[in-house]
């Protein structure tokens, strides 16, 4: 009985994982949530609330780079009316500009990846990367519900 339940749980987990991987909306939500978490950690270091940890800074920048590369392909078509997303239709109306924003984000990461060695340098890096995020969010994302 326990083996059967474990087997059923394993199958359910595998199916859920495959479905999430084939669902661009879920994938991009997960990537963006991860971006927010990484940026939050960097902000704490930049504000001096936590000591600078070079490994964490490098990991955050690597994650941002991964997002910059993967995210544009996760917007293949406009969302259905029933989908819970903050993506605006403008993404698909001006797709080349939208994709250019991710290229700018990737460039900001590369330009700042070796500069985050002190609090002052990290502040500059976080500001530049955050600005690149905002340059895409402002025109292409609905404001958060209040």
Description:
Helix 2 packs antiparallel against helix 6 and helix 5 packs antiparallel against helix 6 (119-140). The longest helix has 23 residues, at 24-46. This protein has helices at 2-21, 24-46, 54-70, 90-93, 95-112, 119-140. It has a single domain (24-140), classed as Up-down Bundle (Four Helix Bundle (Hemerythrin (Met), subunit A)). It is mainly alpha-helical and 146 residues long. Helix content is 71%, strand content 0%.
Features:
146 residues; mainly alpha
Count of domains = 1
Strand content: under 5%
What is CATH's topology name?
Answer: Four Helix Bundle (Hemerythrin (Met), subunit A)
Q: How would you name the oligomeric state of the polypeptide chains in this document?
A: single chain
CATH superfamily: Cytochrome c/b562
* Percentage of residues in helical conformation: over 70%
Kindly name the structural category.
mainly alpha
Give a quick summary of the entry.
The chain has six helices and no strands.
Lay out the secondary structure.
Layout: H1 2-21, H2 24-46, H3 54-70, H4 90-93, H5 95-112, H6 119-140
């Amino acid at each position: 009985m326990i083996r059967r339940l474990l087997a059923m749980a394993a199958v359910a987990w595998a199916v859920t994982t495959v479905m999430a991987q084939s669902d661009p909306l879920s994938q991009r939500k997960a990537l963006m949530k991860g971006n927010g978490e990484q940026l939050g950690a960097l902000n704490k270091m930049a504000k001096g609330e936590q000591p600078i940890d070079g490994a964490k800074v490098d990991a955050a920048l690597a994650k941002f780079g991964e997002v910059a590369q993967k995210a544009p392909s996760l917007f293949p078509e406009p969302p259905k009316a029933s989908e819970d997303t903050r993506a605006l239709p403008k993404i698909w109306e001006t797709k080349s500009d939208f994709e250019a924003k991710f290229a700018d984000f990737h460039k900001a990461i590369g330009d700042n990846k070796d500069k985050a060695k002190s609090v002052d340098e990290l502040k500059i890096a976080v500001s530049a990367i955050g600005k690149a995020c905002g340059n895409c969010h402002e025109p292409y994302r609905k404001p958060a519900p209040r």
